[in-house]
Design a protein that fits this description.
The complex is a heterodimer of chains A (161) and B (155). Chain A has 161 residues and is of the alpha+beta class. In chain A, 29% of the residues lie in helices and 28% in strands. Chain B is an alpha+beta fold and 155 residues long. Classes of the chains: A alpha+beta (161), B alpha+beta (155). Chains A and B meet through strand 3, strand 4 and strand 5 of A and strand 2 and helix 2 of B.
Chain lengths: 161, 155
């Protein structure tokens, strides 16, 4: 017998200039014997291709060209995050993908009033949790360099609870 | 003649330009979701323009499709960001977050276009990368609450 459960996934827009398009929602039958992460993450991986193609100074404020090695690391990390999220009761949603001024990859999820930002660089994977305006009492930070799957599952639960 | 540098008043409007390519925002869920990358800056001193020194909002854009965000100077100055010790732990001392008028003269050595209104969000002392990440989150939250001053246009 196949152990399966239904999980709702919502995908953010992908591709440049598509920010006003509506989201496409999908229901994926999750089979515990089959890794669905390639399917669930297919659209966001297209977004990584866009990020990889950004030129230096892509934002007009001098930001570096995204580091292609960091992009590859972010793709791998996202698969781990997806598996970590699957260990929680909460469905998956793809992140907004961008890059910071140093070429690191920035993954962001919003669930108002909460927000999660994950930075992926060749040096480390770190995160900031935000739940209000006060930098010191309503934001905290940490890293995901130990066991990214389990650690992400914990902050995914925080974001969605 | 050099541009006169003046103090930015607490009540002044500050404009931040955002390229219209969705790398720094997501508007697909109704309310604006503004990425912290909207305030990227290599020197950790994000640029803004003083609205009162611009002839029009269009004059704040680099490209006709750019979106524009509004911040008020005193909101930026009110950001409370603790300094950290050598282990990265917050101390009781705060960074002073300020908006400083930094006009760009014609013939700028860095090749930037002349901009009399150019100003920067600066910190004293300078911020670590970790602190700057939080400053960007705070700036993005402030700007997102107001939504777009001018929405980016599809190119």
């Amino acid at each position: 017998m196949i152990a399966a459960r239904k999980i709702a996934y919502s995908y953010p827009d992908v591709g440049s200039g598509s920010a006003t398009q509506s989201n496409t929602a999908a229901i994926i039958l999750r089979n515990e014997d089959f890794d669905v992460s390639p399917l669930a993450l297919a659209q966001v991986k297209l977004r990584f291709d866009d990020i990889k193609g950004l030129a230096p100074n892509w934002d007009g404020f001098g930001s570096a060209k995204p580091d292609s090695r960091a992009v590859e690391l972010a793709v791998s990390a996202l698969s781990e995050f997806f598996r970590g999220a699957a260990l929680t009761p909460y469905g998956w949603s793809n992140p907004h993908v961008s890059a910071n001024e140093s070429g690191g990859i920035v993954l962001e999820w919003w669930r108002e009033p909460r927000k999660l930002t994950v930075y992926v660089t060749m040096a480390d994977i770190s995160y900031i949790r935000v739940w209000g305006d006060d930098v010191e009492t309503e934001m905290d930070e940490g890293d995901l360099t130990g066991n990214p799957r389990l650690e992400f599952g914990s902050i995914w639960s925080w974001l969605n609870s | 003649m050099p541009i006169l540098v003046t103090v930015v008043d607490d009540g002044e409007d500050l404009i931040r330009r955002i390229p219209a390519d969705s790398n720094c925002y997501d508007s697909s869920h109704g309310a604006l979701r503004l990425s912290s990358t909207a305030f990227n800056d290599r020197e950790r001193m994000p640029s803004v323009d003083r609205r009162r020194m611009k002839a029009s909002l269009d004059d704040c854009k680099n490209h006709p499709t750019d979106g524009l965000l509004l911040l008020i100077t005193n909101e930026v100055r009110a950001i409370s960001l603790a300094q950290t010790d050598q282990k990265g732990k917050p101390t009781s001392d705060l960074h002073k977050i300020d908006v400083i008028h930094r006009p760009i003269e014609a013939g700028d050595a860095g090749g930037l276009p002349a901009n009399e209104a150019h100003s920067q969000v600066e910190s004293t002392p300078a911020q670590s990368e970790s602190r700057f990440k939080k400053l960007k989150e705070a700036l993005a939250r402030i700007a997102a609450k107001r939504g777009w001053l001018v929405s980016p246009a599809q190119s």
